[in-house]
Each structure stands twice: as structure tokens, then as C-alpha cells.
């Protein structure tokens, strides 16, 4: 099943590509029992959007539209096969360690030579401490990264990322991406399996990160903690 994601090509988004509209996405979270008791599809959709009904974390309409747009852009890029301008091109971010690290890796991640996971721990806009693991390649495909390099937006983990945890509310989520499978609830702790070469990345700081992988902790005052995991991807022979 993992190979199916690769066949669909770079930029494939299982949500954006499967559902034509946000309403279709909400409908996928509604079952026949909900409709029977609520007797109102619109009400059922509202309850799903609010997170009261449905399966797991529901993405917001704004994020859905962003992902649809990014998916269409990725599709057009595949058709045109033209070199894509790097989001970090011409950006002066030398004084910002995380942005510099992302800039250094952007081209290699875009062309598939490298996969990168970013661990960020910091406080959100509500003052709550959150942490999470972000698939850099997936973010590059699903949203414009230029506002981050322009410092108009601040990169933070989301419930829709590979892994997310809110230390105050204790909300925890994990999601596979086209690049990684999440392996949780095992003796080794949280692991990420690369879908291309099937190698496993161990994010435990006490353990080695794994074959063809490196762990780099960034010294920065912008966040409480930032760690970058790089994996050189190699297809199975």
C-alpha cells in the first residue's frame, strides 16, 4: 500500500486529491447513524467541523483550501516539468538558524535526494507548550513556504503533522505522510519509517537515528528546542 503513494507522484495529498470539496471531506466523517439521529446533514457537517463528531482530528476549511491549491500547483508542476523556484531563493536568513537549515536543505528535499523531519518544541499563540515532528518535504508540497522565509509566518507543528502533542491539553495526534509512516506504541518509542527505502528513523536522542540518517540539534533563541533529522533516501534494489 505504501508504494501506491509513490505511484501518484510528488505532491500527492490523500485528502486534497480524494475530496473535491470541503463538504465532501466532512461527509466522509459522517456515518449513517449520525444522519439517522440528527436528521440533518448540514448539522452533522457542522458537528464534524467543530470536532464533536468524526474520526480523529479534522482539518479546518482554510487548511483544506490551502492543500487543494498546493495539490493543484503540484499537479501542474508535474505536467509542466519546469524547474520550480525555491521558496528560500534570495532570502537572507543567516541570523535565523532554523530558516537557514531549511534553506540549506530545500533543493535536496524537493528533488527527492533527502527527506527531513523537523522537531519543534515551543509555546503556541495561547501560551501552551506544544511539540511535534514536521515532514519538511510534505510541507513544501502542501503550502507555500515563502512566507516563512520572509518571516511573515512562524513555523510551528500542527495536529496534521507527522506527530503533535499539546503538553497542556494532552492532545496527541499522529499522521502518515507520502514520505513517512508513523510507528508508535513500541518499546523503542516513536519511530518514522521512510516509505521510499523502508529505513527507520529513531528520534530518541539516546539512540542512533538509523541508517543514512543524522540528528542535528540547532542552537536558537527563537524556539525552546529544534532538532533536524536528515535521511538520505535510497530506493530498494
UniProtKB/TrEMBL annotation:
It is found in: Cytoplasm; Nucleus. It comes from the Eukaryota. InterPro entries: DUF4464. One of its GO terms (cellular component) is nucleus. Keywords: Cytoplasm, Nucleus. May be involved in spermatogenesis. This is Cilia- and flagella-associated protein 299.
Amino acid at each position: 500500500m505504501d508504494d501506491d503513494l509513490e505511484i501518484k507522484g510528488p505532491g500527492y495529498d490523500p485528502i486534497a486529491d480524494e475530496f473535491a470539496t470541503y463538504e465532501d471531506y466532512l461527509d466522509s466523517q459522517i456515518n449513517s447513524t449520525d444522519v439517522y439521529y440528527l436528521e440533518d446533514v448540514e448539522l452533522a457537517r457542522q458537528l464534524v467541523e467543530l470536532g464533536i463528531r468524526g474520526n480523529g482530528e479534522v482539518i479546518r476549511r482554510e487548511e483544506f483550501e490551502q492543500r487543494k491549491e498546493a495539490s493543484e500547483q503540484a499537479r501542474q508542476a508535474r505536467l509542466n516539468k519546469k524547474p520550480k523556484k525555491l521558496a528560500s531563493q534570495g532570502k537572507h536568513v543567516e541570523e535565523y538558524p532554523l530558516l537557514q537549515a531549511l534553506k540549506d536543505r530545500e533543493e535536496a528535499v524537493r528533488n527527492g535526494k533527502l527527506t527531513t523531519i523537523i522537531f519543534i518544541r515551543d509555546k503556541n499563540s495561547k501560551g501552551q507548550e506544544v511539540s511535534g515532528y514536521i515532514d519538511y518535504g510534505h510541507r513544501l508540497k502542501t503550502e507555500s513556504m515563502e512566507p516563512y522565509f520572509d518571516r511573515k509566518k512562524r513555523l510551528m507543528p500542527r495536529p496534521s503533522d507527522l506527530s503533535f502533542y499539546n503538553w497542556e491539553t494532552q492532545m496527541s495526534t499522529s499522521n502518515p505522510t507520502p514520505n513517512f509512516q508513523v510507528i508508535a506504541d513500541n518499546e523503542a518509542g516513536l519511530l518514522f519509517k521512510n516509505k521510499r527505502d523502508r529505513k527507520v528513523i529513531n528520534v530518541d536522542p539516546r539512540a542512533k537515528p538509523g541508517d543514512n540518517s543524522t540528528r542535528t540539534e540547532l542552537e536558537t533563541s527563537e524556539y525552546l528546542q529544534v532538532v533536524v533529522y536528515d535521511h538520505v533516501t535510497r530506493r530498494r534494489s
